[in-house]
């Protein structure tokens, strides 16, 4: 289904990002894993489904440097990957994991930069190469942003105030960019509840009222948005 296409997935060293990478690889895409943990990605890239035509690789990359206006180490490798790709999944995310009154300002800023600024800049960098490659492929290029059910509901759990605000911002960005790029690049957002197998899911306090889903549900939703010709409105 995705043979001949390359996907870049951020936050791909573990959790949802890694699971989405595996799912896309099983459908035939070549994957570029993007994260800071090179050791984890070295192992991960070897475990992706692989046919003769698939070439998986990883780029060790610090999204905070990108968000801070610096040129991260290995930036040229990211640009090279973008020129080869027609799928971008912005999955990297973090949370302060503490009540707002107790959260260090530096932690808040880093959370903003990772969850919102970095996906915006990566999407910007993808527009020109995706538009170019889209003219050569039958399927439109696609950007999928991993937001959260927190972005549009009143649900919350302790320590998610900043996270919820940023995921709402990411959803708004997704909708606006989808309209801006309509006709050339599809832009969608997946809105998972708390995923049981992720770091956040494991840290959720007992008795938490926040809805919990399985990893497979989140991954299936993301892959559906990659493969189906649908766009948010």
UniProtKB/TrEMBL annotation:
Coiled coil: none
CDD domains cross-referenced by the UniProt entry: SDR_c (cd05233)
Keyword Oxidoreductase: yes
Residues spanning the signal sequence: none
Entry GO MF terms: oxidoreductase activity, acting on the CH-OH group of donors, NAD or NADP as acceptor; quinone binding
InterPro entries: NAD(P)-bd_dom_sf, SDR_fam
Keywords, comma-separated and alphabetical: Oxidoreductase
Database matches in Pfam families: adh_short (PF00106)
SUPFAM superfamilies per record: NAD(P)-binding Rossmann-fold domains
Listed name of the protein: 3-oxoacyl-[acyl-carrier-protein] reductase
Species: Candidozyma pseudohaemuli
């Amino acid at each position: 289904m995705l043979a001949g296409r390359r996907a870049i997935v951020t936050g791909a060293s573990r959790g949802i990002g890694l699971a989405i990478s595996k799912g896309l690889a099983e459908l035939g895409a070549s994957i570029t894993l993007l994260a800071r943990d090179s050791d984890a990605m070295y192992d991960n890239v070897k475990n992706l489904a692989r046919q003769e035509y698939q070439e998986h690789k990883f780029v060790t990359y610090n999204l905070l440097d990108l968000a801070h206006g610096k040129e991260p180490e290995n930036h040229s490798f990211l640009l090279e990957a973008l020129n080869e790709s027609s799928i971008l999944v912005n999955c990297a995310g973090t949370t302060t994991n503490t009540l707002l009154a107790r959260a260090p300002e530096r932690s808040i800023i880093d959370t903003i930069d990772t969850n919102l600024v970095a996906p915006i800049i990566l999407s910007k960098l993808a527009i020109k190469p995706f538009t170019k490659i889209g003219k050569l492929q039958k399927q439109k290029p696609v950007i999928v942003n991993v937001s959260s059910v927190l972005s549009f509901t009143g649900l919350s759990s302790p320590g998610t105030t900043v996270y919820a605000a940023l995921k709402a911002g990411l959803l708004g960005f997704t909708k606006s960019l989808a309209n801006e790029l309509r006709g050339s690049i599809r832009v969608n957002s997946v809105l998972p509840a708390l995923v049981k197998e992720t770091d956040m899911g494991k840290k959720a306090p007992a008795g938490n009222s926040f809805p919990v889903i399985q990893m497979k549900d989140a991954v299936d939703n993301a892959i559906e948005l990659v493969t189906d010709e649908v766009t948010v409105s």
